[in-house]
Specification:
Number of helices: 4
Number of domains: 1
CATH class: Alpha Beta
CATH topology: GTP Cyclohydrolase I, domain 2
Helix content: 25-40%
Oligomer: single chain
Strand order of the largest sheet: 1-2-3-4
Number of strands: 4
Structural class: alpha+beta
Distance between the termini: 15 Å
Shape: elongated
Order of helices and strands: EHEHHHEE
């Protein structure tokens, strides 16, 4: 097994329960972890034999651009797209964090982490 990790991808997006969040937006950080069998790529040195992390990033970027009320919804959309569009993914884990959430106190971020096992 091999692991690809794309960490601290930063986006400005319009996710949130409150109407202001849907209009003004906020800063979000995304961490993506993909587990896959890399034996063929290790031997071939060919991009077609591995999980392309550039495509993974593009999927995350695309899904982050779609407004959602809940971090769980955003994370699930990303996981579904990653596992449906990238061949070879066996386990995918996504962490979506909202920086400075509007909760009435000084909070660095709030995060939701989801995982999906492909069968």
């Amino acid at each position: 097994m091999a692991i690809i990790e794309i960490e601290n991808i930063e986006f400005h997006a319009n996710h949130g329960h409150y109407a202001e969040e849907q209009v003004i937006g906020n800063t979000f950080l995304v961490d993506l972890r993909i587990e896959y069998n890399s034996l063929k790529a290790q031997e071939s040195d060919n991009l077609k034999d591995t999980v392309n992390y550039q495509k993974a990033f593009e999927i995350v970027k695309r899904e982050m651009a779609i407004k959602s009320h809940l971090l769980e919804h955003v994370g699930n959309r990303i996981l579904e797209s990653i596992t449906n569009e990238l061949v070879g993914v066996e386990i995918a884990t996504i962490k979506v964090s909202k920086v400075n959430p509007p909760m009435g106190g000084k909070i660095e971020k709030v995060s939701v982490t989801l995982s999906k096992v492909v069968k």
